[in-house]
Amino acid sequence: MALEDYRGDMEMCCRCSTCKFIPMQKVKGAQYVNVCPSIAKYNFHAYSAGGRLNIAAAMLKDGFKYTDKLLDIVYNCQLCGACGVSCNYAMDMEVLQPISEFRLRCVEDGKTNPALDKVIAGLQKQGTMVPGAKGKRGDWATGLKLKDATKEKVDVLYHVGCLTSYDKNMQKLAKATVKILQKAGVNFGIAGNAETCCGGRAYQMGYKEDFLNQAKKNMDMIKKAGIKTLVTGCADGYQAFKVLYDKYNLKGDLEVLHISEYIDKLIKDGKLKLNKKVNLNVTYHDPCRLGRLGEPWIHWEGKKVPGDRFVFDPPKEYRRGTKGVYEPPRDVLKSIPGVKLTEMTRIKEYAWCCGAGGGVNESNPGFARWTARERIEEAGSTGAEAIVTACPWCEKNFSETIKENGSNLKVYDIVELVEKAI
Ligand code: SF4
Ligand code: SF4
After folding, report:
1. Residue 257 forms beta bridges with which residues?
2. Which of the ligands is closest to the CA of residue 36?
3. Could you say which ligand is closest to the alpha carbon of residue 11?
4. Helix locations, 206-317, DSSP H
5. Distance 224 CA to ligand 2 centre (A)
6. What is the percent of the chain with per-residue pLDDT over 90, rounded to a whole number?
7. Counting C-beta atoms within 10 Å of the first and last residue's C-beta, which end of the chain has fewer, N or C?
8. Is the pLDDT score of 1 beyond 90?
9. Using CA atoms in the order 97, 99, 100, 102, what is the torsion angle rounded to 10 degrees?
10. Three-state DSSP class for 348?
């Protein structure tokens, strides 16, 4: 698909601004009504999903004339998908896909963001989205004697991900995951230094070729090793393997599970017992790419029926964000003795982004932190002692924001709490 293929969707936009807020039928109060970090921060219609669609449609019609302001609008969007969920509460049209294609088109036309170029140069050189990463990808596992999934037969490949592999503060998540899988007696392995980036964050930044290169490398390794099931604790990785690889027909029949889904299954199958008390009042943050953007891809081929109405033959099914991974992490938290879960206002498909996606963390860290601050405040308003997430990128952004701004709220990944309970 290319931007041109979404011309009709973009022209459908009636400028109603629903994409900026939780739909009226679902709203619970005025305080946490915003869903789009970009319009909430920049407060000018061009920074909303509708604005972006209007601009892209006009450019398709009148030619691509790039300005610094236009690129500021394009890159200051987390591609979090909340806009599409709100719009699609009432409308049948693609919203996030054309916004993403607009970004891909900018990169294709050489209109890149210098900060993102640097990250991609690192990816090309080192196979990771952690710029300036030191050491080797598998160093965190030194001494753990884990199986090498590229050489030994395993039931599950644990894909660790870039941030968890390389960031010294995040390696605890990989170690916690290992302990949990070992405790449950899972025959798993890692790819160690043979693991490479999933490519998902490169895709969000607009670098489609780099994404495809990574996807092909990963799938070659997975096929060669005969791996049938992949488990990851990274929401970006989950969405890449499960949704994006499928979109580009690269996934085959690989089963892709997020660690929260896998732990939930282990608990429900009686293979993992959580019996140590963890006395903690928590609230749960749905990572965008595990929640609404983790919804399976729907392959559709057909054509628009001629006429003014937006009718397709065969009928087109829209991804509305309701089929993301919402219950498994909540069920896991509820299984931990002593943990009390209190929900925030914006949850599941209406969750507010942590701020770290879409390249914003790298191109405009101030905006990433601003977005996290809003979520931390919302989490604090529940009376919870801790915000629990299920993605290292969220945890890092929340933790760094709290360090900069102060808050009593603690930040955990779900695997850290499960590790405490086993
Ligand atoms: S994208 Fe959808 S919700 Fe936003 S202004 Fe356009 S039609 Fe309305
Ligand atoms: S993807 Fe997220 S940040 Fe971008 S326009 Fe949509 S809601 Fe706003």
Report:
1. 231
2. 2
3. 1
4. 208-225, 235-239, 245-247, 259-268
5. 38
6. 96
7. N
8. no
9. 120
10. helix
> How confident is the model over 248-290, as pLDDT tens digits?
999 999 999 999 999 999 999 999 999 999 999 999 999 999 9
Decide: pTM greater than 0.85.
Answer: yes
Atom 2 in ligand 1: residue holding the nearest Cα: 87
193 close to 165: Cβ distance less than 8 angstroms: no
Share of the chain above pLDDT 70, in %: 100
Give all domains of the chain, ordered by start, each with its CATH number: 1-111 (no CATH), 125-268 (3.40.50)
Cα angle for residues 193, 290, 10 (degrees, 5° grid): 115
Residue pLDDT, tens place only, 67-104: 999 999 999 999 999 999 999 999 999 999 999 999 99
Answer yes or no: is the C-beta of 214 below 6 A from any ligand 1 atom: no
Which residue, 221, 216, 234, is CA-closest to 151? 221
How far is residue 180's CA from residue 177's CA, in Å, rounded to a whole number? 5
Residue appearing with tokens 């943050």: 285
